[in-house]
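Annotated sample (chain length 552).
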Amino acid sequence: MWPARRVVGETFLSLALALSGVGAGLLDDENAAVAVGVGLLAGLLSLLRRALPAPVLLAAAAGSAPFFGFAPLLLVVAWSAGRRIDGLGRACGVFALAYGLALGLTAAWESHASLPLLAVAGMFILVALVVPGLAGRYWSQRRTLTDTLHEYNAQLLRERAMLVGQARMLERQRIAQDMHDSLGHQLALIAVHTGALEVDRELTDQQREAVGVLREASVAAMHELRDVVGVLRDGADGAPAGGAPQDGEGPGAPSRGVAGVDDLAETSRKAGTAVEIRRSGEVRPLATTADHAAYRVVQEGLTNAHKHAPGASISIGLRYEPDSLVVEVANGPAAEPVPGDVASGGQGLTGLAERARLVGGMVHAGPTADGGFRLAGVLPYASPGDARKTFVAPQDDFRAQSPAGPGGEAGPVIEWSGLPKELARAVNRTKRGNGIAIGCGVAALVGIVLVIAMVVGVVFLVREADKAMIEPAQYEAVKIGQSEQSVRDALPHGDTFMNTGQGAGAPPEPDGATCLTLLSTEIGSSLTADPVFRFCFKDGKLIEKKSFEAAT
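Output written by the structure step:
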């Protein structure tokens, strides 16, 4: 099925060719019924030029000889046939046959035509056939080559994305192994030693409580390290929605989701900080990555508050909106002077913003009116199936080269299994008929020949016109009674194919006289009448000159 746009275009072109065929026929003094019939046939043939390019070209070439109304159609079908006829040899054969038909039928139809007239007609038929055909063939080959290059470029981009993705995966696995081997060992030692200190009888209750906080922090750090290692190795969090324990976690393992916010607040309270949690809205489950991001927002907010505003009260807000979860951590002004040597990497908020971006959310941080600080994150709800995300930074967004995918995500690296076969078929099409280079060379050669032929034809027509035409002033300058030799010396001899004689409607010649008939450079009163000057001689003198219009 053709799209609606193409149907409208084909219909409009068919009507235009039909109307132009009727108009050309009427200008050529054809019968009105014949002109309408030729126009309708031209419109019908234009609809068939895509399915039957060679037969339609031959039909248009054959019809252009007796009927001038097929001339506009011939230009269109020659261009279309040049695009759609496969193979250089076949195309040359079809166009040569069309040229022979048009020229042969022209010679048969115009039985009175002279050889120079047939030569000029043959040149114009050649131009009308070859120039549109070469243009259509060049356009088709150029478009095929362009499409092939676009397809090949798309394949290269996908392969590049695949290689970059594999490199990222290998680097994540290497980093995960390093973290597991170094940090995991150190945290395990801390947990063992703090566990041993916790049961030491020489410690006071306050010291034992502090050691217990350290042990819980080291155990939580070990679990978080395992999560990070899992993300680096697998590319996504594997925990179920809602922050439930992962496989291998004990019932007492800390949760790293919204459910773990209470544990974070309790740990801060044990450190002597007043922490308040406010919840609002109907609780809804989040995808694993979004749930973990909410936990990280609270964790980062509490860490920043302890570093930069020690002793200040902290409020944690969990607001369940219809489309997203809003997590807020706000603290008041610092109750104690901030030490000047507080360690800060400056990357916490940046990493948190990237984590929120990967789940489709956003993070905002800034000071409050009372001198405190506020950190907020907006995290959309998502189904568990949408939780897995490809860790591709925005600057490496290869989808920017292809608008088919969403921005910020690379999508499937390979999604066109049939690409090599399609590329091979397209390349074979461009190589058919000895390739585009040979076709362009032949087109250039033919073009040069046609230009030379046109220049020669124009010069030839100008010279022939000089032999057949005179100005009205030349006609007036000739006087009755002048010698025949002087008159013929002053006028062209009129022996040319452009001078078709007196034509219909000419007055009778004087008895026993020989006459010279020439065309006027002026335009006649109608398209079917030519102004003619006639000079008749007898006994070596000019005895009559007449000016009249003769039907062509």
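Annotation: The radius of gyration is 46 Å.
Annotation: Residues 144 and 394 are 33 Å apart (CA to CA).
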